From TrEMBL:
<feature type="transmembrane region" description="Helical">
    <location>
        <begin position="257"/>
        <end position="280"/>
    </location>
</feature>
<keyword id="KW-0472">Membrane</keyword>
<dbReference type="InterPro" id="IPR001173">
    <property type="entry name" value="Glyco_trans_2-like"/>
</dbReference>
<feature type="domain" description="Glycosyltransferase 2-like">
    <location>
        <begin position="6"/>
        <end position="184"/>
    </location>
</feature>
<keyword id="KW-1133">Transmembrane helix</keyword>
<keyword id="KW-0812">Transmembrane</keyword>
<dbReference type="InterPro" id="IPR029044">
    <property type="entry name" value="Nucleotide-diphossugar_trans"/>
</dbReference>
<dbReference type="Pfam" id="PF00535">
    <property type="entry name" value="Glycos_transf_2"/>
</dbReference>
<protein>
    <submittedName>
        <fullName>Glycosyltransferase family 2 protein</fullName>
    </submittedName>
</protein>
Amino acid sequence: MNANLSIIIVSCNTQLLLEKALNSIQKSGDPFKKLLIVFDNGSKDGTQEMIKKKFPWVVYLRSEINLGFSKAVNRAAQQAQGDYLLLLNSDARLQEDSIQKAVEWMEQNPRCAVCGAQLLNEDGTLQNSIANFPTLLTELSNKSILRRLFPKKFPGKEYQSDRPQAVESVIGAFFLIRKTIWDELGGFDERYFFFFEETDFCLRATQRGYLVYYLPQVKVWHGQGKTAKTRLSEARIEYWKSRYRYFKTHHPLYKYLILRIGLLIRLFLTLFLESLLYLVTFGKRPTTRLKTAYKIALWHLKGMPDHMGLSSHQEIKCKKD
């Protein structure tokens, strides 16, 4: 097999996790020629020094400010070579055969534009690796309940299959793309600073007749949000921004307005119930849900400004954690 690929990892103050990800790539037991590109979104934790010392063969790109995930990937992809582009989270680690199994599948299935892996927790338990395209039903109801009641329509870790299956979208921790299709679609939509960029890409690919596949035979360990948990409230605001943007782009105006109203009702109901719980427990420490809901509500009340969340006109400094 003559296929070769470029691997892109975007990192912001995740030096220890990044090192583990790079080590797992070094140990990958596949025959492919690989170009590894790390895009550093303004880290202050010694990432640059670690790369130079331990992985001098890596193509290291750096921005002094946090450009956001989509823009960082697009800039890194300008350096990419080969038939495939693998986007790997800095908190992910490959098994030795992950790349080989994924590329072999793509080589045998030319209509497949994107494939994703079965993501695993550290203890080997399953994570949700498939995502449906966001609709009013998915966003205004409980996704876990939908997955349990309708596992074929809303596949998740509760519904297991040992065969590859065509899906709407896959989680972007391991995101293997044909380079020709990446170029055809123009990469990620840079209006998404963080979240929903891979869902948007999968939707645009399927609209052109390509397929997206989930590959259960490809296993990848994933920290599941460790890169965002240090700034949870800001990350949730960024999630809301991206969700609104996705609906504005891909749904009629009336559905976007219904989403806004429905989500605000849920938000203020959460605020009321969590505040009531805080009061009946005689003012013990407020829950994380209360703090996060309060900041999201405040963001709405201020007119949803860009400077709240993880982004600030795409020029937020990457803080040291």
